[in-house]
Amino acid sequence: MPEGLSPSEVGKEIAEHRHKAEEQEKEQERSEESGTEAKGQEKWLTITEAVLLAVVAILAAWSGFASAKWSTHSSLDLAKASAARTEANRAAYQAADLKNFDALTFNAWFTAYVANNKAAMRVAEGRFRPIFDTAFKAWLATHPSTNPNAPKGPTYMPQYKQPELALSNTLDNRASTYYSLGEQAGSNADGYVRTTVYLATVLFLVGISGHFKVRAARLGLISIAGVILVFSVISLILAPKPPV
Questions:
Q1: Mutual angle of helices 7-30 and 36-114, in 10-degree steps
Q2: Which residues, 6+ apart, have CB-to-CB distance to 170 below 8 Å?
Q3: Distance (Å, rounded) from C-alpha 172 to C-alpha 16?
Q4: How far apart are CA 33 and CA 52, in angstroms?
């Protein structure tokens, strides 16, 4: 993605403008028909064009720098979002695996309970994870065998916690935040690139204005370039400043 006008392009345009200005001055000196007032007007046009080119060179450099900074910032934020999303998925998978393990151990206990095999029940309970064991005991306290309103199993109890799932949600929210920041930074970079395109238009108009011998045509091109330059300056002032 283009980040700004090339310094060589701006320098080349300024050099060409200076060369054209020197040729015009020599031609005016040789011309006997040109009066003093006309020469003064031509000189002011040349000075105006030079000033416009100098301002474009400075603004284009700043716009390119700001665009590059925002682009880098956007890439970093998007990379952080991707990393956080990967960690969130890993934590979610781990939470799902642990919940499946809890379900398997509970199924083993329930099978032994239905068979009234107390030894197998004790073996199954010994395999419970501490977090699941807390929820299991709370579930037994609801008398599920006689209470029709009891929860369906220990995993439905509020005591059943999954830190991995909470971590996954936290990381997922962080990834969304980083993605939004990266998207906004990318939009800021695009805004500076768009301003650079306006500045390139000014450079083009000022560059071709020196080719016209008709003063009205030069004035028209310089006026249009001036309006676009003012718009570009306003855009740069209102644009978010690049990150440090």
A1: 170
A2: 88
A3: 56
A4: 29
pLDDT one-digit tens code per residue, 71-129: 999 999 999 999 999 999 999 999 999 999 999 999 999 999 999 999 999 999 999 99
Do 193 and 19 contact (CB within 8 A), yes or no? no
- Tokens 């991707």 found at: 82
Instruction: Name the residue among 100, 103, 107, 92 with its Cα closest to residue 173.
Output: 92
Residues ≥6 apart with Cβ < 8 Å to 112 = 118, 119, 120, 121, 123, 124
Over the range 96-131, which residues count as b (16 or more CB within 10 Å of their CB) and which as e? eebbeebeebbebbeebeeeeeeeebeebbeebeeb
Place of tokens 């028909």: 33
Q: Tokens 């474009």, residue? A: 56
Q: Where are the beta strands (DSSP E) in the chain?
A: none
